[in-house]
Design goal:
32% helix, Sortase, Chain: A, 4 helices, 231 residues
């Protein structure tokens, strides 16, 4: 009788465990499918928004060459002639969410139109210029933030950048070329990474690691050349 009783108790426990396991497995599967579906939908939205941005500012969608440098120039060119009446004027008059510039970093497979602003709606369109940071120009630290997992994930491979790699940023008038100096991670409260600097810099930021907001991945780079673009 004792053996029969033990068998019945074991059967009862097993019967109670299996439905719970099946329920948990179904729940986890549903969460995974939902997450994949959400990422897929936001990717479609992100790509559509990028197409719209390129149409809104054709000068940022064309592969334009830089203008010839003066014959007397032997080193890097820093052509800021007309910067205030061209780039600065364009950026100041640009509405939030508008096409701010074109950001490219071959080592991470990046070629995206940057928008003005970093609200949730802005970042659904593409990487966003942090409005409290400096404009690309002769001085200051220009900060740009982007997604790594959703809305096309433009900064998905930000961690592939290494010191010495090249990043270019095009305004409608000129190309800014930056060289990566440092790649590191900080907690979100380290806002000084995008603070004003005397020397011209570009700072890219994104959540780190992917699917987590525990840290921020930071790519700091220095301006090494500025050239007018052909029209």
């Amino acid at each position: 009788e004792a053996n029969v009783q033990v068998a019945e108790v074991g059967a009862t426990r097993e019967t109670g465990w299996r439905p719970a396991a099946r329920w948990l497995g179904t729940l986890l599967l549903g969460v995974a499918v939902g997450l994949l579906g959400y990422v897929a939908v936001t990717d479609v939205i992100g790509r559509f928004e990028q197409q719209q941005l390129r149409r809104s500012q054709p000068m940022l969608s064309e592969d334009r060459a830089v203008a010839p440098a003066p014959e007397t120039t032997t080193g890097p060119v820093f052509d800021f002639a007309g910067w205030a009446s061209q780039d600065r004027k364009y950026w100041r008059e640009l509405p939030e969410g508008g096409a701010f510039g074109r950001l490219r970093a071959p080592k991470m497979g990046l070629d995206a139109v940057v928008v003005k602003g970093t609200t949730r709606q802005d970042l659904a369109r593409g990487p966003g210029w942090i409005v409290t940071t400096d404009l690309p120009g002769p001085t200051g630290n220009c900060g740009i933030s982007g997604h790594r997992t959703t809305y096309g994930a433009p900064f998905r491979h930000l961690d592939r950048l290494k010191p010495g790699d090249t990043i270019t940023f095009d305004s409608p008038y000129r190309r800014y070329t930056y060289r990566v100096r440092r790649v590191f991670a900080v907690t979100p409260d380290h806002v000084e990474v995008v603070a004003h600097t005397k020397d011209p810099q570009l700072t890219l930021t994104a959540c780190h690691p992917p699917y987590s907001a525990r840290f921020r991945l930071i790519v700091s780079s220095d301006l090494v050349e500025v050239r007018q673009l052909e029209r």
